[in-house]
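Work Package 4 report. The design task specified in the project plan requires that, given a folded chain encoded as structure tokens, an amino acid be chosen for each position. We show below one input record used in the internal validation round.
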């Protein structure tokens, strides 16, 4: 499954959940999964597709949550998101 295959409701729910976790601009996959309501498997597939903005520290990937939120918001508003990450 890729980001364009998730439904509008899932994107909107993920945005709502992420907005409830202020002060955490970078999260690893597991906490992001808990905070967004998206599965770890789905988030990891986005990482493999190059759709998660962020960076590696060692072997751990940290997602840039504000940029990911903006990407999801663009998808929720009918856009294709911002591929500049």
């Amino acid at each position: 499954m890729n980001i364009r295959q998730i439904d509008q409701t899932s994107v909107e729910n993920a945005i709502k959940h992420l907005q409830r976790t202020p002060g955490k601009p970078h999260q690893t996959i597991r906490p992001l999964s808990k905070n967004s309501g998206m599965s770890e498997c789905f988030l990891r597939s986005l990482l493999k597709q190059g759709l998660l903005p962020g960076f590696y520290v060692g072997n751990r990937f940290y997602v840039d949550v504000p940029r990911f939120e903006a990407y999801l918001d663009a998808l929720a508003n009918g856009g294709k998101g911002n591929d500049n990450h």
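The chain has a mean pLDDT of 80. Validation will be extended to a larger panel in the next phase.
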